[in-house]
Each structure stands twice: as C-alpha cells, then as structure tokens.
Amino acid sequence: MTVPETDAAERLAIEGAQRDPAQFAQLYENNFERVYAFIARRVGDRYVTEDLTSEVFHHALANLSRFEWRGVPFAAWLYKIARNAIIDRAKRAEKEGEFPSSLDTTEEISPQHIEEEIENRARLFKLVDRLSDLQRRVIEMRFAEEKSIREIALEIGRSEGAVKQLQFRALENLRTWGRGRASGTSEEQTGNKNG
Asked: Vertex 80, ends 79 and 86: CA angle to 5°?
C-alpha cells in the first residue's frame, strides 16, 4: 500500500471506530506494538509498560470522538497520550516517594527518530515471535524479565548449558532475520520456526 492509501485506510478506520467503538479493535491491533515499544523505551519495566500501554488505549478509546483527522498518523496522537501517561505516572510516583530511576520523561527527540525507534522495536517483537517456543521463552525470560541463566534453567527444567545454547541460537536467528529484512531478503529465505 502506498502512503496515501495507508492514510486513507487509517482515516476510514478512525471514522469507523468513532461511529462504532467496536471497530477500535483494528486501530488497537495496528498500533499496539508501536505504543508498547514507545513506552518500553522510556520506562524500562515490563509491568509498568504493560499498565501504561493499557492506559493509553483506554484513554484513546474514551476520547476517540474528540480526535480530528489532520493527515498526521493516528500513532502520533497515541504517542502524545503515552508521553502524558508516562509523565503522570512519574509525578504520582514522585509524590509517593517511589520515583523509578529508569523512567525517562525528559528526553526530547524528533518525531522521525521516535517513529524509527518504534518501528525497529516493532520489527524486533515480530522477529521474536518467529522463534521456536523454547527459544522465545528463553529470550523473554532473559531480556524482558531479566532472569539469570540459572533461574531460567530451573524454571524450564534444562541445564544452564542448554539455556545458553538456546539463547545463542535465538540471538543468531534474530541477527540473521534482522539482516535479511534490512537487505530485503524474504522471510521464507531466512526464517526457520524451529531454529
């Protein structure tokens, strides 16, 4: 789809959701990974990221009738809501004396940079989904949940060496697939679901 076609499709989806809130599901599906990545980059905590992402979409749905199409991607409005939600969360935490050091509310970067970063993270999430179930679980536990090799080995019932090998193969697959996307190689040529 070309950019004008994409814009037109997004505008129709927004207008449809404004008439029938049940159609908001498509906007949610189209933008979830972007918003999640945007928040994750600034928050650094998986549970807070999930909570804030939920808040963003709840707020967007509740205020969708106020959204006016101006030719700017719907995601830009969602990013603004997300940024405000992050700031509100930081203010609440600061009042309660629990200001998380990983929360970044000061970074000012260009919208293009934000979009590139979000697209990169969304691509990474999609690539992780292509891993075998066990490789994906090891990567999630190791990097999202920040568990040690030993903790992962105990949880999945494998040796530490096996966990290291699963992690190594998963990272190699992600690198290969990532390079394939960057060079235009198709998934069928590079992917192996059982890797």
From this structure: 85
Q: What is d(CA 21, CA 30) in angstroms, rounded to the nearest whole number? A: 15
pLDDT digits over 26-47, tens only?
Answer: 999 989 988 998 898 888 788 8
**Residues 91, 139: one domain?**
no
What is this structure's pTM?
Answer: 0.53
C-alpha angle 101-121-68 in degrees, rounded to nearest 5 = 90
Query: Among positive and negative, which fits the CA dihedral 34, 74, 52, 39?
Result: positive
Domain encompassing residue 101: 1-106
| DSSP code at position 22 | G
At residue 93, the pLDDT reads: 78
The single residue listed with the structure tokens 């909570």 is 51
Residues 170 and 93 reside in one and the same domain: no
Regions of the chain short of the pLDDT cut 50: 3, 101, 105-106, 182-195
| The token pair that represents 75 in the structure block | 């995601």
